[in-house]
Design brief:
The complex is a heterodimer. By secondary structure, chain A is an alpha/beta fold. Chain A contains six helices and four strands. The longest helix of chain A has 16 residues. A four-stranded mixed β-sheet of chain B has the order 1-4-3-2. A three-stranded antiparallel β-sheet of chain B has the order 7-8-9. In chain B, helix 7 packs antiparallel against helix 8, helix 8 runs antiparallel to helix 19 and helix 10 runs antiparallel to helix 15. Classes of the chains: A alpha/beta, B alpha+beta. Chains A and B meet through helix 3 and helix 4 of A and helix 6 and helix 9 of B. The structure holds iron/sulfur cluster.
Chain lengths: 171, 544
């Protein structure tokens, strides 16, 4: 078993930049931490199920453990009561980490313009990719995951991401 | 004028309700809510009124009781000693309106966060006044009290392990938080905290027209959005005294039952994942994906369909619908058989589900549990049979009953209800009448596009309905349907304008969740997880 390259390269040495090698590995082994709170979370279940098959992107290991995850997908409405919980889980994830905001609610509060709903999770944590829709179709989620893969490919592993972000819960 | 059935003095409230329960066997407390008359066009005796909705033991009759709350004290006696369901219902009313219930053992907020000030559903609370919550609640105000009431000494309490499950936890199915006191793996006490998905449904209803609310109802129980659409539209139609066409009724039945199937699929699939069986999930979810393809063809959306309109439906069925539907039904049948073949004779499955999470009949009724959870306990209550609407009495189908009320019963009842729904759908498809799907009512339904663009009356009509909304006669009204989780009721107060004065949703799983902590106490953590999954808690519904 191998990747197939051994038939071409034999046991020769391949040189590459560390960034390239690590990023390549990272982008095809995303571990999503799904912060699914509402309807969008149900659509995420469809993304993971047989038809849309998230595992084609190497991102099927859905863990609810922030320590093991490097991609946070916020799927659903975030209320003010939930906000500190979301922030805490984001903080517990190790670097490097990416965040996808799935659906109108997570991006902007959606059509819940009222006393309880946070008007976009970027008031609390930094976001890398936004997905429109209420809920977005599974294809749109896959698209965002591919965009994150692209993003993670041309970043340097020694640079800390999103360190200048300040949300309203970062006192 | 639409009126509540009874108006009583606050001083007689408790005795009246107790009488109704004891003498006329109104055993089910469906809901409690308040109305703030501050901005109501007709002067009322006091600012706040409370509404209690009860149902009798035959489940055929419901009664709404209203009482005007004294402005000076803003307090009424609590009913927690009569109905278990009153516990959370009163807490919610206190939270949203600030009305106190004397004698309530634990009167604190339930939907809004503990740092919240004021009461959002009061008419003088501005809808966009947001309040930031900076920390989560410890729940250590409730837990010691609860343990002490169960007779544990301070020493024993110190020796217990306290564990927090949720609000973001794979086993909590949505944003529920359970705070447990454990001895080993046995749950000695459990406190449930909700409100993490409180999205202000009821307040939002007060700033939108009747038609604009339909998309909000989708997001109550997002596993069976159309059933919520139907429940809401049916209430408004009854208030307007509109009879929708036969064809619309049949289509509502067909699509509604399909939604019920999807709802049960999600619940059972997730339940079996919690038991460790992922294969079942693939088997039954593939049928669900087929159903979603059909729904997106029909309504344009997969999950949040907003398919019904007050007075009918958004679209008629498309060409080839019958074939697509039959394919879906076949896939569901196949998926059910496949999934069941894995668990039916599986010893582990039986051990993990039988005699686990038992809900007794008496407790279920007292806690206000309805739907499959109640039927699995052996109580024959299904609104489709007791108060048939949309010709349900002409369809041949069985009410599915369990005998134990355990997790096994609930799973199997859901599987069987899926079969019954398929039966109903097939009969309805066979007898589907021709004709229009919308009633002719220019003051309720938007005109055809050719009129909007073609003549001034059509254009005006469109304008008036869009900007002013449907004018519903003044008064208040309660109506209920059998939704995925049980009795889904809407209590609507109209001031005669195009926007409801108040909409209260009676969410079935709010009451089931209120009872959850009592059901799992004494059991093991692992059992609590499957019990939770089997009761189908949908955060959008109990938190609204
Ligand atoms: S964006 Fe829409 S579908 Fe997603 S959680 Fe919000 S209301 Fe639900």
């Amino acid at each position: 078993m191998g990747l197939g390259v051994e038939s071409v390269f034999g046991d020769s040495v391949v040189t590459t930049k560390l960034d390239t090698a690590v990023n390549w590995a990272r982008s095809y082994s995303m571990w999503p931490m799904v912060f699914g709170t509402a309807c969008c979370g149900i659509e995420f279940m469809s993304v993971a199920a047989a038809k849309y098959d998230l595992s084609r992107f190497g991102a099927e290991v859905v863990r609810f453990s922030p320590r093991q995850a490097d991609l946070m997908i916020v799927a659903g409405t975030i209320s003010f009561k939930q906000a500190p919980v979301l922030k805490k889980i984001y903080d517990q994830m190790c670097e490097p980490k990416w965040v996808i905001s799935m659906g109108a609610c997570a991006c902007s509060g959606g059509f819940y313009d009222n006393y309880t709903t946070v008007q976009g999770i970027d008031e609390i944590i930094p976001v890398d990719e936004y997905i429109a829709g209420c809920p977005p179709r599974p294809e749109a989620v896959l698209d965002a995951i591919m965009r994150i893969q692209k993003k993670s490919e041309d970043e340097s592993i020694i640079k800390e991401r999103a360190k200048n972000f300040k949300g309203y819960l970062d006192a | 004028m639409l009126k509540p059935d009874m108006i009583v003095n606050p001083s007689e409230l408790k005795s009246t309700i107790k009488n109704l329960k004891d003498k006329e066997s109104f055993t089910l407390l469906l809901d409690i809510t308040a109305i703030d008359y501050l901005k109501f066009p007709v002067k009322q005796p006091t600012r706040f009124a409370l509404v209690y909705i009860l149902r009798d033991a035959s489940f055929k009759k419901s009664v709404t009781i209203k009482t005007y709350v004294d402005d000076a004290t803003l307090s009424v006696p609590s009913l927690t000693d009569i109905y278990f369901a009153a516990d959370w219902a009163e807490r919610e009313t206190f939270d949203q309106y600030g009305i106190k219930f004397e004698g309530h053992p634990n009167l604190k907020r339930v939907l809004n966060h503990h740092q919240f000030e004021g009461h959002p559903l009061r008419k003088d609370y501005n809808i966009t006044d947001r309040q930031i919550c900076t920390e989560t609640e410890g729940l250590m105000d409730e837990m010691p009290k609860l343990l002490t009431s169960k007779g544990y000494t301070q020493q024993e309490q110190d020796d217990m392990m306290y564990l927090n499950i949720g609000p973001s936890h794979p086993a909590s199915h949505g944003t529920i938080r359970n705070f447990l006191a454990l001895e080993g793996e046995t749950i000695k006490a459990c406190v449930t905290e909700i409100g993490y998905l409180h999205r202000g449904f009821e307040k939002s209803c007060e700033t939108h027209t009747y038609s604009q609310i339909i998309p909000y109802t989708d997001r109550l129980n997002y596993c069976s959005a159309i059933l919520n659409n139907i429940g809401y539209c049916k209430t408004i139609e009854e208030m307007l005294d509109i009879q929708i066409t036969d064809r619309a009724q049949f289509i509502r039945v067909i699509i509604g039952e399909l939604s019920r199937i999807i709802d049960h699929i999600v619940c059972n699939a997730a339940n079996m994942v919690d038991l460790g069986g992922l294969t079942n999930f693939w088997f039954i979810f593939s049928a669900r994906d087929k159903a979603y393809d059909l729904l997106s063809k029909l309504t344009g959306a997969r999950l949040t369909n907003s398919y019904t309109r007050v007075g009918g439906l958004e679209y008629d069925l498309y060409d080839g619908f019958a074939q697509d539907l039959e394919d879906v039904l076949k896939a569901v049948e196949q998926g059910t058989v496949d999934a069941l073949s894995l668990v039916e004779h599986n010893r582990i499955f039986h051990d993990r589900t039988q005699d686990v999470g038992v809900i007794t009949k008496e407790f279920a009724i007292s806690a206000g549990i309805t739907g499959v959870n109640l039927r699995a306990a052996g109580v024959n209550y299904d609104i489709r049979k007791t108060n048939p609407y949309y010709h349900y009495d002409s369809f041949d189908f069985d009410v599915v009953l369990g005998s134990h009320g355990d997790v096994y019963d609930r799973i199997m009842c859901k599987f069987e209800e899926m079969r019954q729904s398929i039966r109903i759908i097939r009969q309805a498809m066979k007898n589907l009448p021709d004709g229009e799907v919308n009633v002719y009512a220019p003051d309720v339904l938007l005109p055809a596009k050719k009129d909007v663009y073609g003549n001034i009356e059509g254009l005006m009509n469109q304008f008036k309905l869009t900007f002013e909304g449907i004018k519903v006669p003044q008064g208040e009204y309660y109506s209920a349907t059998e939704a995925g989780n049980g009795e889904l009721g809407f209590y609507v107060v109209s001031d005669g304008s195009g926007t409801p004065y108040k909409v209260k949703c009676r969410p079935p799983c709010f009451y089931a969740l209120g009872a959850y902590s009592k059901i799992v106490e004494g059991g093991m953590i692992a059992d609590a997880v499957v019990t939770m999954a089997s009761m189908n808690f949908i955060a959008g519904e109990f938190d609204r």
